[in-house]
Write a structure and sequence with these properties.
single chain; 386 residues; alpha+beta; 2 domains; ten-stranded mixed beta sheet; two-stranded antiparallel ribbon; elongated; MacB_PCD
Length: 386
């Protein structure tokens, strides 16, 4: 017991005696662990932030029917292809999404033509609650529709001279709908030429209960690539085609990959620099303390006990550096995420273990070479100053 107390007292006295060098090592270890903590928090926070931003682009996977196609032509002449109307079974799609375990927001669509006066108009049936979540860029003049109401695209509204409050009559193969225009939507895309109404109403008008022409999915940008997720879903829907929306796929995966690569490179540079600094400082300490080491061995201290003192110093510095680094890194992460990315950082308790592990790893790794020198040091030659 006395021997253990002596070793602890010697360890603390050695650190206190070299206050400047001890503070330097603590600063290096705290800097490395704080940057690892800060980059970890920023990386994880930004991964979710990027996912949230990518949501603004809309769906990134689309499920469409595998339509039957008939090539028309003779000899070297090709007049194109004729496609029979094809639909997706809504119940089967819902079952496939549930059994596939794909975490995604979805929007069911049925597109068809209804008769208005003496002309056909394109109409799309949707669930407006899903549309409001998946297509936040839609600009609606008026209100979102309720039962018996419709939304009309801005270009179509201009051609037909329609406005909110007007009533339209749309005739399908199964029934005629009399609908009130609740609003006019502006998207800047093909939606501006369509009528939109509740999916069940259009299914009833066209005589296509439970049928869809398209399913749009917004899956998370994290984890597997969109290509992998599409490939996993495809076998569950053999009569459909699962396609990526290329622009969205590349944007989401590219942004996340660049953020992670940047964080990894910066962390690697910091760790290498910190490890080199710790090694150099510890090596200098061993050279300065060679006579002290030789004296401890000469008065009965074994090589392992002397080595234990240096190992204990490294462990103590690593623990203190890790704790300080976690607190400092959390503060840096809060500053970066709020001022640079305008986002709220997440509190991630397990990063404290990462910070501690980084500090201990650097402290012990940087002390390996000096510890080997301590173990091999000849007490007689060190006392002679050789």
């Amino acid at each position: 017991m006395n021997r253990r107390r002596w070793l602890i007292k010697l360890l603390l006295a050695a650190l206190a005696h070299r206050t400047g060098r001890t503070l330097l090592l603590l600063s290096v270890l705290a800097m490395a662990s704080s940057l690892a903590t800060a980059l970890g928090v920023v990386s994880l926070s930004m991964g979710k932030r990027v996912s949230e931003e990518v949501r603004k682009y809309g769906a990134n996977l689309v499920v469409v029917p595998a339509a039957a196609r008939l090539e028309v032509g003779s000899g070297g002449l090709n007049f194109g292809a004729i496609s029979d109307p094809a639909y997706l079974d809504q119940g089967r799609v819902e079952k496939a999404l549930a059994s596939g375990g794909l975490k995604a927001e979805r929007s069911f669509h049925l597109r068809g033509a209804l008769r208005m006066k003496d002309a056909d108009v394109l109409v799309e049936g949707v669930n407006f609650a899903d549309v409001r979540r998946l297509f936040p860029w839609w600009q609606l003049r008026g209100g979102w529709p309720g039962p018996g109401e419709t939304v009309v695209g801005s270009d179509l509204a201009q051609r037909l001279k329609l406005k909110a409050g007007d009533t339209v009559e749309l005739t399908g193969t199964a029934q005629t709908l009399k609908l009130k225009v609740s609003g006019v939507v502006v998207t800047g895309g093909e939606e501006d030429d369509l009528f939109f109404l509740a999916l069940p109403e259009l299914q009833g008008a066209l005589g296509l209960p439970g049928q869809l022409t398209e399913v749009r999915l917004l899956v998370s940008a994290e984890g597997d690539t969109l290509k992998d997720k599409a490939a996993a879903l495809q076998p569950l829907l053999p009569d459909a085609k699962v396609r990526e929306v290329r622009q969205i796929a590349r944007t989401s995966e590219g942004l996340l990959a660049k953020v992670k690569l940047l964080m990894t490179l910066v962390t690697a540079v910091v760790l290498i620099s910190a490890g080199s600094s710790v090694t150099g400082t510890m090596s200098t300490t061993v050279l300065e303390r060679s006579r002290e080491i030789g004296l401890m061995k000469a008065i009965g201290g074994t090589r392992w006990e002397v080595l234990l003192i240096f190992c204990g110093e490294a462990l103590l510095l690593g623990v203190v550096g890790g704790v300080v680094g976690y607190l400092l890194g959390s503060g840096i992460a809060v500053f970066i995420t709020r001022t640079v990315f305008s986002a709220a950082p997440e509190f991630i308790p397990w990063l404290s273990a990462v910070s501690l592990a980084v500090s201990l790893f650097l402290a012990l790794l940087g002390s390996v070479g000096p510890m080997i020198s301590v173990f091999k040091l000849d007490p007689v030659r060190s006392l002679r100053g050789e």
